[in-house]
Amino acid sequence: MGRIKKKGEKGNAANYITRNQAIRKLQINLGDFRRLCIWKGIFPREPRSRKKASKSASHSTTFYYRKDIQYLLHEPLLQKFRDQRVLEKKISKALGRGDISDAKRFEHNAARPDKTGKPTYTLNHVVRERYPTFVDALRDLDDCLSMLFLFANLPSTDAVPAKMVARCERLCLEFQHYLIVSHSLRKSFLSIKGVYYQANIQGEDILWLVPYKFKQQVVGDIDFRVMGTFVEFYMTLLGFVNYRVYTSVGLKYPPKFDESKDAQAAELGAFTVESEKTMGAIEAPAAAAAAAAAAAAAKELKPNPKVQQKVDKLIKEMNAEEKEDTNGITELAAPTEEDAPDALDKFEPAVAGGDILPQPSYSTTNPGKLFSNCTFFLSRETPRAPLEFILRAFGCRRIGWDAVLGEGAFTHDEKDERITHQIVDRPIVRAAMNQENGDGEDNQTAQKLGPNQQVPGRVYVQPQWVWDSINEEELKGVNSYVPGAQLPPHLSPFVKSTAGQYDPTVALEDQELEGEALDSDIESDPDVEEAEETNGNDLAVKDLSIDAHPDMDVDEGDDDEDEESAEGDNDSFGGFSEVEENGAAESGDEEDDDDDDDDDLRRRQLEMDAEMRGEHVSSEPQDPKSKAKAEAKKKHAAKAKQEAEELERRKGMMSKKKRRLYEKMEYGRNKQSAEAEKLRAKRRKIEKELAKPEA
Amino acid sequence: MPSYVVNKKRKASEEDAVAFDDEFQNGALEAVLSDGSDDEEDSDFEDFGSPSISSLDEAPDKGNDEEEGKYLAAETDDEDQPNFRVETDANGGVRYVYDEIDPVYDSDDPDAKEATNTIGDIPLSFYDSYPHIGYDINGKKIMRPAAGEALDALLDSIEVPKGWTGLTDPETGKPLNLSQEELQLLRKLQTNEFLGNGVDEYPVSLPAKSLVATGANTDIVITQDTVEWFTSVEEKMPLSAAPEPKRRFIPSKHEQKRVMKLVKAIREGRILPYKPPQEKEKEEAEKEEKYFDIWADEQPRDPHVMHIPAPKLPPPGYDQSYNPPPEYLPTKKEKEAWEKAEPEDREKEYLPQTFNALRKVPAYGTLVKERFERCLDLYLAPRIRRNRLNIDPESLLPKLPKPEDLRPFPTLCQKIMRGHEGRVRSVAFDPTGNYIASGGEDGTIRLWDKDSGHELWRAKVSSEDRVQVVRWRPTADTFILAAVVGEDVVLAVPQIDSLSGEVENTSREVLDNGFGYAKNATQLTTASGARKDPPGKWERPGSKLESQGVLLKVTVRSEIKVLNWHRRGDYFCTVSPAGQRSAIAIHNLSKHITNNPIKKLRGGIPQHASFHPTRPLFFIAMQRSIRSYDLSELKLDKTLRPGTRWISSFDLHPGGENLAVASHDRRLVWHDLEKSADPYKTMRFHSQSVRTVKFHKSKPLFADASDDGTMVVFHAKVVSDLSEDAMIVPVKTLKGHQVIDRLGVLDIDWHPTEAHFISAGADGTIRYWG
């Protein structure tokens, strides 16, 4: 005999606590509670039964898990919040009393993170608690990076202090440096929202979004305090992650930061990544070369052959140095890569007969070597930051750009002969077509080439080439990416094709459902809208054909056992009114020994109809092609009908519970397939239109 | 004011007088003198601008002569030169003529003539137009006191004396000034103090002398004795003789504790030396965030059971590309629909766009908002763990054997028999399976040939009522057809050529046998003794019908809807739903007797009744339940609850252990009689009510007929073994009958041996399915 259970001691009632109760228990105000929840990662729950959790709960009541709140009770930050509140009270009291000096003294003690960007507390312990292992932290890095990259691009306001923006930017650039050094960037995608990047660190895929470099519009109700709280935590998190990833590849953290270069918009170039052991700058030579080149370029406004020679010589030397250095570095880096936790083994079946599993490799080609043999030059109209980052991350060491794009370039000289690829994103100017190699002087930039003028011996491509190349993991052919060319569609590398979904990379014929093309061929109309409508109607017509002509079976009074399918065929003829149907039915007895052939039957039917109406039958010669098509379509319709009948038969025998479940699933599947079908129809139409002018 | 002061002096204390006497030693006595002489001689100097004069306070006590004389004496003593001449007046008397006093301002003439009203009792306004007001004793005009600019100039040069009110004395037209005393008085009045002159309500402890020394002009203070409630004098001698306590001589422990605390704090660095605020700020700004390897000693920890990690945002699809494949771009219609929809209702928050160059891609407007919403989702949205059903929907569908394996079953309409006008209500195969009987709303019973589909025989049994049911007597040795027409059951032996004489004779014999049985056996009487109608009247239907083969008629009390034969053919039951107590009737053909075995029916209107195929059980379907009665013991055997709302009919499996129920709420229910009162299977294949259900006599088949014009043929394998459930497989949906007035197929009947059946439709046709 068990004890009588008391109410409210177990289950929902004991497990959940409303938000107000939680606040009262913690003795803090709502704002502090919110901050605490954000930092500690505590989120509301949905109790299985709201009524049981709290009798007075309405639909808008927020519930928290009671143990979460219990856990917050021991949070050291809670005391910090309380202290801060006490201080605020003291200040307001002193001000009320008129003790300005006291108030000032208190104010001086008060932490104002929104102004100084430096709170009195640290969130280190929270990071450790939330992410007991480094991999846990990496798993949660998506939002962190998206948020910090966004804040790095926000204008500083009262709500977003300039220091916060600067720190975000710095952390982001440091992280990018790690990705460059470790070559762990995998994919990138140019979307309408911004640039998506995907990196793989220790086997974790991290996907984040970087907005385009424009002033971000702040529309609608946006509470920057909430976002600021998130950013505060994310900054701490990314700092620790950066430290960890830097040290894991043997780099010193934080990297050296050159403020003067940063002021000249060097961005990535403002940092000098140093190895922990040698304490030597890894990228220093490149930077030095770049600086030298820049200096040379500055001098070279009017080309002086002597100076040019000297500079060339200097650069040659530098390059030699660089090569040596890089060799040194690779040697240095090699052992670390061996030790790196994400180093891969090859699994080969030791004994024959085992199944071959997919190898745990990221790609067949080394992403760090994709652009290693190229020298890029970015025109001034291209987005420098993403291009520089991606090119560097995929092994390119020499990137030059126009001087207007900022400091830190390998060269500012467009005519530099070492450049192999130039990224251009400008249309071909028609007016300037005739101008030939007239040096177009431009006061604002270091541009010394006229419009449409190209330096021989290098490849001119549009920026999309870079993205498509890294996503395909090979250098794509440049034919379709030359300036002014109609670009091929830029596809998201993150979509995994699933069965039944539309895939733009696969030919239309391969993914069409059976008979879909046939339907559309017969019913398609030149107008898009109409085409869509007919598509929509198509299904309805099919349904009708199943329901509305029940007497079709009559047409062949045949005892043949194999008639099932044939009978189905007949059903899909459609086009007979009920009355005609009856007429046919009446004469069904006479038709007992009719041929199975659909066509025959059909013709006969038509003849008979005509006879009944007292008309003469005109045998219309049919186009054999369309006839074949119609036949195929008929076959398909018959099959579809039979399947539908079979399904109906089985569905009738289901229990109510299972049937509901099945219908729910059907709904989702139908929605997906409708979506895919719509896309296919659009593509079919587009392809048809493209084919027309050729034909 | 001197005059006033002097006057006060007389009343004031002696000391005060002394003090004030000092003030007046500067030879102002002259004026005093002259003042004293005012009475006698009217001084004719014009009282110009002396602000101290007030008519209110001055009722100058014209001092006694004694005093005056004394003053006079003093005057004469002091003054060497008289300021008057002695003249003789008109009477020859001595007359002192004084020099005219030059009324310079500084003269400070103390005895300047007080204003006296010389104008009499007339309003002052009479003098408004004159420069003077009244006349003095000498008949000279008394000039109006200075006003306007002259006065302003003067006021500028002097300070406002005490007691100046700025008012004008209505009697004299001169400025009205209040004396100190009067002011004091007013103040006392205002503060509700005691008005008694010279009484200080609040004695001050200070000695009077010190007060004087401070020179305070509280001239009306009368010092009273101060009560010293507390001594103000410090006592030199200690009152207690206790020795000084020890604690006065040893260092305090508490203080030491506090000091030690401070020392500790300093040592630990909790108290830092003071730094100027600027320096401190600078230091703080320089301080870098200290990062270290926070995961140096990481230990994987299983997340809490209740922890639900935040779901990641889905990766961008093809349609988010800046240059997507063209099929992803929205058409005009889609675009309009998207723009028209509320932002909350949109399926996607963005519209796919295309740009032919990267440089043309603009900023994404709602990026900050999207991020913000993600933040809100992260900390504000309740997280629920939902189990996604990762099952193949195919697996939910029951696995049915292929219909091809379950042959034979009817698949096609082989014949259509037309002839009935109006609906065909009922059809039945004769026990041999060669003929089909049908009854329709035209009141005829017809017989059709199964093979040819030709009508063989017809009898019109009623001109107004419809033939509701036709059922053959189940034994093969006879050829008897029972049909229900309104309240009557007619029994006929259809006269067809192919019918053998033997069978016909037996049939007629069976029908006629009852006429000889116990005609007068019992007469039913009511309680009152009157003769009561028997539940069924057995009689011949009349010569016209008899010539057609209709030989017997049984009439019951109300309209019959259902008729079913007992397997042996000696009994048949009828159901007349409106019959109440006589609703269920069992008729004995051999004895021509009708019984109403069950009088009390519960559960609404009886719908259907049938005999058990093997055992002496009788089933009655009420609206919602089916009851079986044991006929041998005459008691209720069991009740079935098919769970439907309105049973239309049912049929018993020939094995007798299963039962199929058709219902008006579109369901077909299978009951296993051995198992439970609840249904074993419920099947829904129809969109309208299911009218009837029939089992095949020998084959594992049954079919139902519905108002939606369709019939479903099932394969039902029933094993006598209890451990195995019946297997029910729908094998074919048959469509053919048309729905007229929302009625489709009204009745079906199986061929006794073959897998064929016939159906009666509301469209007036009988269809043969094979």
TrEMBL record, chain A:
Residues 652-661 have a biased composition (Basic residues). Residues 366-483 form the BRCT domain. Residues 540-552, 600-631, 640-651, 662-679, 686-695 have a biased composition (Basic and acidic residues). Residues 516-695 are annotated as: Disordered. InterPro entries: BRCT_dom, BRCT_dom_sf, PES. GO terms for molecular function: ribonucleoprotein complex binding; RNA binding. Residues 516-535, 553-570, 578-599 have a biased composition (Acidic residues). Pfam families: BRCT (PF00533), Pescadillo_N (PF06732). One of its GO terms (biological process) is maturation of LSU-rRNA from tricistronic rRNA transcript (SSU-rRNA, 5.8S rRNA, LSU-rRNA). It comes from the Eukaryota. Keywords: Nucleus, Ribosome biogenesis, rRNA processing. It is found in: Nucleus, Nucleolus; Nucleus, Nucleoplasm. GO terms for cellular component: nucleoplasm; PeBoW complex; preribosome, large subunit precursor. CDD domains: BRCT_pescadillo_like. Component of the NOP7 complex, which is required for maturation of the 25S and 5.8S ribosomal RNAs and formation of the 60S ribosome. Belongs to the pescadillo family. Component of the NOP7 complex, composed of ERB1, NOP7 and YTM1. Within the NOP7 complex ERB1 appears to interact directly with NOP7 and YTM1. The NOP7 complex also associates with the 66S pre-ribosome. This is Pescadillo homolog. It comes from Zalerion maritima. The lineage of its organism: Eukaryota, Fungi, Dikarya, Ascomycota, Pezizomycotina. The gene is NOP7.
Automatic annotation (TrEMBL), chain B:
Residues 32-91, 315-345, 522-543 are annotated as: Disordered. Residues 315-328 have a biased composition (Pro residues). It comes from the Eukaryota. Gene3D superfamilies: YVTN repeat-like/Quinoprotein amine dehydrogenase. Signal peptide: none annotated. GO terms for biological process: maturation of 5.8S rRNA from tricistronic rRNA transcript (SSU-rRNA, 5.8S rRNA, LSU-rRNA); maturation of LSU-rRNA from tricistronic rRNA transcript (SSU-rRNA, 5.8S rRNA, LSU-rRNA). One of its GO terms (molecular function) is ribonucleoprotein complex binding. Residues 127-410 form the BOP1 N-terminal domain. It is found in: Nucleus, Nucleolus; Nucleus, Nucleoplasm. Residues 36-47 have a biased composition (Acidic residues). Residues 330-345, 530-543 have a biased composition (Basic and acidic residues). Keywords: Nucleus, Repeat, Ribosome biogenesis, rRNA processing, WD repeat. Belongs to the WD repeat BOP1/ERB1 family. Component of the NOP7 complex, composed of ERB1, NOP7 and YTM1. Within the NOP7 complex ERB1 appears to interact directly with NOP7 and YTM1. The NOP7 complex also associates with the 66S pre-ribosome. PANTHER family: RIBOSOME BIOGENESIS PROTEIN BOP1, RIBOSOME BIOGENESIS PROTEIN BOP1 BLOCK OF PROLIFERATION 1 PROTEIN. This is Ribosome biogenesis protein ERB1. It comes from Zalerion maritima. The lineage of its organism: Eukaryota, Fungi, Dikarya, Ascomycota, Pezizomycotina.
